[in-house]
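**Fold in tokens:**
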Amino acid sequence: MPGKAKLSIIDQRRAARRRIEVEILGHHRARGDIRLRLVNISTDGFSVRDFVEMDRGDRLMIRLPIVGYRESFCLWVADGCAGLQFERPIRMNEFSEMMTMIQGRQQADGAPGRAIEPTSIGAIES
């Protein structure tokens, strides 16, 4: 996983975003494992808040249910939030299945915000 992404692609935000409130673990090459609070997600990327400092172009590996490991890179940082784009989009059938699973867990818990698979991914490196 190289350090910084070359951001020549314009973020077009084509995919519809789904609001979500869950904690996940991400792996940042320089900072190691970091906790993130996902606030929205789409097949193309996601937004987080309350995160460890990140810069535009930083790469981050996350693990999502159904989808598995996904590499992403930071497109923007502002006011304690950051927007990241997946290196490759999530297939729609996997995205739908993942959202159904996450929403089912939240309903079972009675409240949003439960961590999804809080497993360390520090050992994952390309």
User: Anything to note?
Assistant: The longest strand covers residues 18-28.
